[in-house]
TrEMBL record:
Pathway participation: Metabolic intermediate biosynthesis; chorismate biosynthesis; chorismate from D-erythrose 4-phosphate and phosphoenolpyruvate: step 1/7
Function, in words: Stereospecific condensation of phosphoenolpyruvate (PEP) and D-erythrose-4-phosphate (E4P) giving rise to 3-deoxy-D-arabino-heptulosonate-7-phosphate (DAHP).
Record protein name field: Phospho-2-dehydro-3-deoxyheptonate aldolase
Superkingdom, taxonomy of origin: Bacteria
Keywords of the record: Amino-acid biosynthesis, Aromatic amino acid biosynthesis, Transferase
Membrane-spanning intervals of the chain: none
Domain DAHP synthetase I/KDSA residues, every copy: 39-339
Source organism: Vagococcus fluvialis
Amino acid sequence: MEVRDMGFEKISEEINASELLKSYQLSGKDLELKNKRDEELRQIILGEDQRFLAIIGPCSAHDEEAVLEYAHRLSKIQKEIVNEVFIIPRIYTNKPRTNGDGYKGLLHQPSAQGKSNLLQGIQAVRKIHHRVITETGLTTADEMLYPENLEYVKDLLSYIAIGARSVEDQQHRFVASGIDQPVGMKNPTSGQLNVMFNSIYAAQQQQEFIYNNQEVMTSSNPYAHVVLRGGLDANGKNIPNYHYEDLVTVHQMYQESELKNPFIVVDTNHDNSGKKHLEQVRIVKDVLSSREWNQDLKPFVRGFMIESFLENGRQEVDGDVFGKSITDPCLGWKETEKLLYSLAKNK
């Protein structure tokens, strides 16, 4: 009987991280701009700056030119509402797949309809973040799906998200404790808030572990914070957690904890909307109403994570509509523009 040799087959040369990071580096005024915006974002999380935070953009950044067009439009709005809302474009280049099937993001597929090529994908990821920063003046957010890959892009990021499927993973929690950027940690798909709070606690502590082939000790990340994205019950039914009672509960859990810099972001899509993209507008209004009803929430409930693109809805991977999502359905531009201006008026 033939015994199959199971394991890992090397299909590329070892990546030289120092050489890779020389591509699409920030320098001069672009680096100054990023450092300035990074500090502004930290002040928002600290509560010294009471502006709203809007982490907004397509579910997946599958088309570089469409993403750039979208980011340019965001940049124009940012200039008009800069005193009320701090905008960070979602440039999400890794997509978690529950069963491993489907489009996995720009990192895996530099061309959405092409084959997987992660070496080209890493360059494509650096390029798109670099272009958004240098061409629009906005700094970006991405999701940390693969912690070991963070070294290849973190110099270009202002905000990092830990997704619902990753937030229970110890490596994600520990890596989050060693990075400089604010980290939004979502509740898991079960909706359990204590899991999310345990993750934030771990990220706000010093940790020791093996990372990129060496033992490291992290500094801790005081900017790790809550992202509410809803959950699913045992029957797969959506359980939103953006309602007034949910916000009060999370605020109380923060007050009873020893966590630093309590800050609450509401993810308006996913299990909060049931992926009904137009519901995101109503959810933002609902959260704003809750803040007005209970003034104690105002200093803490100041973030929104919104999925939007140039066109409403979604299309299949082989679709050819410019600026339309190929993963979760997104708000179109007209709705997005109106929502951001409305958010600014409510500041």
